[in-house]
Amino acid sequence: MGLLPQQPRVAISAVRTTSMGPLTYDAVIVYDKIYANEGRGYSSSNGTFTCPVSGMYFFTFSIMRTKNPEEAYVCIYKNDIELVCVWVDNEGSREHGAATNSVIIDLEQGDEVSTKLIAGYALYSDRDAHVSITGFLLYANQQ
To answer: Is residue 121 within 8 Å of 21, Cβ to Cβ?
Structure first.
């Protein structure tokens, strides 16, 4: 029995440790604390993951809104095309609210993935890291 080819390793796990917004424009979320950046696809300078290996990827992202009346609204993008979003309203509450969403997407080498805070909304985070993203390669495309 022959050996299976080595699977490329690509994974990111990062959090944001400061609040963000509300802003008057859509803004890429830059995650400042990096737990994993296998494959070196994530840039902490611009908040963008650039796909190093073509294949099928899983991404999940979590957000928290502030205690103030602001709501939180974040979307994940592939090459600036919106894929899925998550929204946390204030429901008349002065407490924090949180939400998560996930997506599986086919990426080609060089494709870019980012999350954006939508204009007019705000995120809450602190050293406990309430805003996060995780992504990894499920399997590489066959050459």
So the answer is: yes
Q: How far is Cα 61 from Cα 93, in angstroms, rounded to an integer?
A: 23
Q: What is the pLDDT of residues 14-52, one digit of tens each?
A: 999 999 999 999 999 999 999 999 999 999 999 999 999
User: pTM for this one?
Assistant: 0.91
Among 102, 10, 14, 120, which Cα is nearest to 61's? Answer: 102
What is the token pair recorded at 87? 């929204």
Single out the residue of 21, 77, 83, 25 nearest to residue 49, CA to CA.
Answer: 77
List the beta bridge partners of residue 112.
Answer: 50
Tokens (6 digits) for 88: 């946390």
